[in-house]
Design brief:
The protein has about 500 residues and is mainly beta. Helices cover about 10% and strands about 35% of the residues.
Amino acid sequence: MFSDETVDSVCVQSLWRQSQHSEQDSRSCQTKQLRSADAEAQSVITSFSGTQTQFEDKDEHTLYEPNPKELDKPELKHFLDRVVESVIRELVKNARSHAFDGFKVSWEDHSDLVSCLHCLEHPSAKERGLHVTCISWNCTGSVVSCGFGRIDDGDWSTEKSFVCTWNLNRKGLSPTHADMVIDVPTAVTALCCHPDQPALIAGGLYSGEVVVWDTSRTQDTVLAQTSILADSHREPVYKVSWMTLQKKGVFGILSACSGGRILLWNLDQSSLILSTGYALILQQVPHSNSAGFKTKGSSNIGVTALARSFWDSDTFLVGSEGGWLLRCSFSSQKLAMVASEGQSVSLRAPAVFSFRKHSGPIHSIHCSPFHRNLFVSAGTDGLAHIHSLLQANPVLSVRVSDSYIFQVQWSPSRPLVFAAASSQGEVQIFDLGHGSLKPTATIEKGGSGQAATCLAFNSQNTHLLAVGKTDGTASIWQLSGDLTEQGPREISQLDHIAKQVAE
């Protein structure tokens, strides 16, 4: 079954060894030796030469007639044939675009947009170092009234001050000699001229009194004033405003003080009678998701700014020392949580909505005369906040200054223009229609360290702007047409800003 057998051997060549012994070439490259040299040159002799040509006495068209040979080039024709369709397409697209409707190109320097007409001052006030604390135009737009006091006096002050008036239309106007000087027993903190009667001026004093002056009187100009009673203010009055009452043609005076009271006075011949009173208590302020209120304890909200809506007679806005920004209602029937203390009227709580809190005291609020929902507020944070009444957060914030803003106001003729006076002495004028948050014009008047405390647009002569400063001067500025003439699409642009949703 099994037997021995011899078989021939078979040899299989290794492919792996062959792969290891494949041909390999070695190559190298070397650049030629680099040569370097140092050289320098220095001129010894210099000369200057110049030439001047004159036009030849030829026809104007002959001078600029193109050379036909230069146009007859195939590469130029090829280029034009290649781009003509693209150029025509872009031109048609630009012709149909409305991106720049209403845009006005300003070829002027910003300084040409404003010019100073007058620099008014009262020598006695300037000698005593008083500041212009408030300023107001009368209803004719020809007389400007200035109140004097101090903005840096934190203690109770009994220093006398003045209210001065200048008629800019008067022949022989003297900037250093006011047409009328009214002596006031304490600092003037607020002024407002009557909307219909040119001779009446309402004022608020540091002592808490509200006064009405009649400049048509030659002897005693005080027509009416409040007294220090339980019904009156007990803190400095920072805002006074004439308010139309229910009876046609009859005006009352709305006043607000740092003690948290807002009072409405009826002017009855030669006396002021309290009609309605409001008090802002922190516990009664409505909450907002972004307002950041803490309502522990009960305390008054000191009012430092107040503005009434031009569109809704029931709505007014309040700014406070603590940065609270509130929408309030005159028709509120909710009683304020304060002691009566012998008052003739019961104080009501007017706050109905709270906006986002400012980081410091609010010095100024002003409602837009062109849009029912827009208003601007400013204070110690150096920002001008554009708000809508329909949401808590501002729709736009504009950096005005690195320091305080004392007053901000919308233009009476341009829906997108507002001005702001800062503690750095500048008045910045912004035009939101330019698509830039930088100021369109800047007013700088006076020495360094002099703050711009107040400003007022003239609603009758819209090209005039009055500015008061801590150096005791009130300057009258004329605005160019670019800042006073309304563009065709400004209202729609303002409406677009109002509809923005705040972040």
